[in-house]
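Q: I have two molecules that I believe assemble together. Could you output structure tokens for the complex as a whole instead of separate predictions?
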Amino acid sequence: MHIFVVEDEKTIRRELKVLLENAMYQVTAPDTFENIVCRIKEEKPDLVLLDVNLPGISGFDICMQLREQTEIPIIFLTSRTDSMDELNGILKGGDDYIAKPYQAPILLARIAAVLKRTKGMEVKETILLEKKGVQLDISKCCLIFQEKKVELTKNEMKILHLLFQHSGEFVARMDLIEYLWENQIFIDDNTLSVHMTGIRKKLNSIGVQDFIETKRGIGYRI
Amino acid sequence: MKLIDFFRDKSLLLLLHLVCMCVVAGFLKVTGYGKANIILIVIFWTMLLIIWFFATYLNRRKHFYQMEQILEKVDQRYLLGELLPDSFRLEDRLYREMIRKSNKSVIERIRQMEDEWKDYREYIESWVHEIKAPITSISLLCENRRHSLSAEEGKGIKEDFYTITLENQKIENYVDMALYYARSENVYKDYLIQETSLNEVVSGVLNKNRLLLIQNHVNAHVDCKDKVYTDQKWIAFILNQMIQNSVKYQRKIPVFHIYTRRETNGVILVLEDNGTGIPAEELSRIFEKGFTGSNGRNHERSTGMGLYLCQKLCDKLGIGIRAWSEYGTGTRMFLEFPISNYITREEMD
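A: Yes, here they are, computed for all two components at once.
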């Protein structure tokens, strides 16, 4: 997936690039904005992140010029928060409008949503994750080990999902809780411990011992 | 205008007439007129005087009644000078001219102050937009650094980035308050009413504050199925203020219940916490500007602006805001979204 970033603020541009590249997108982020419309057309990105206030040109104008010839999805990023601007952005053909200061997870979620809507493709998620013979079935929400199966709650499932995704490395408790909050599970430290105990019990019940490694003050690893 | 007041006002003139009557009567008597003639003259004089007196009274009363009516009807009373009814009287015309001049200077003054205020407001708005760029930079920077560090190597440093992010969010929050305060007078210029999923707004606000909430060991249970027609941005700001308060005034491990209730005439969003609560005698004053209360003094700094702004914005958006609290047990904040008569959903074919 190729994302074209049009942003005049140097630090934001650099950090956006890092953020998007970490999220496995290919990023083009030019520092000058001459002939920006032509350059975007040449690059043919899958998505354009467009700042509204640019030196010499308005993001709305760029959007309009792009819309005349292409259907590239456009997300406006702006520090202006008037409703008029937002309406303007949508009328000029933008696909979404995100106000600064945005938070990274929210930005990524909305990029994914626009890509999904416009391209009709979803980031393919593996439905079956596996580690040391233990399988996590995301669609059925359960753990499988040697034909034995145990159902998981939504919260337990999300916790395990993150651990499976980062198998082999430690996941900090704080990162784990943050991930849960991003997924609409608003729990605290203690509740996480309760869930971990629950998960361990379930693992034991299907005959898996010491699957999750705990390092005090650091986090969990599978 | 009362008759007696008018009479008093004209008493000097009447006295003059009385004196003149006496003088004329005396003069006629001396020149040899008969008594009956003199009485007749005096009676006629008096009658004419009475007719003139009442005619003038009625005329004046009508004139001032008209002016009062004008004053009542116009909403900008300082425009009276332009609206005064015509009068042939010299005094009226002079007064009218003076009132007009005085009003003109008032209007000029008001215009000047409006301009100044508008400039100031625009400056605040542009300042807020400027400052959001560095806030965004800091937030992205911290986020990226945090995630580039693995759990083992970044132990202490991660904490630092959390703190910076948290402080950065505080700045953002204060900046937002300034922006919304500057805008609160002109809400009508800046809203976009659309179908809003309260669940999305609540999740968004919780997520935005997740570092603060996680640090404070908050557990939140969200059950907001209902949708309302409102402006997302303003609602998010109001909810944000309310959640900040719930975090600030906590007593034990905070548990929030955020849910909606559908009632016959609207949807109610409830934010329930188990914090310190508000003493009964202070409950009625929490929406006042600058009111901090005993909680505000005993806890973290409080500006007394948050809830004041919330109420102001709710008023403008037509949303009811209420609070219920039991001291030492918790607080429930209610947002009541009325079902509008003039917004109905048209089913698409």
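A: One point stands out. The mean pLDDT of chain B is 87.
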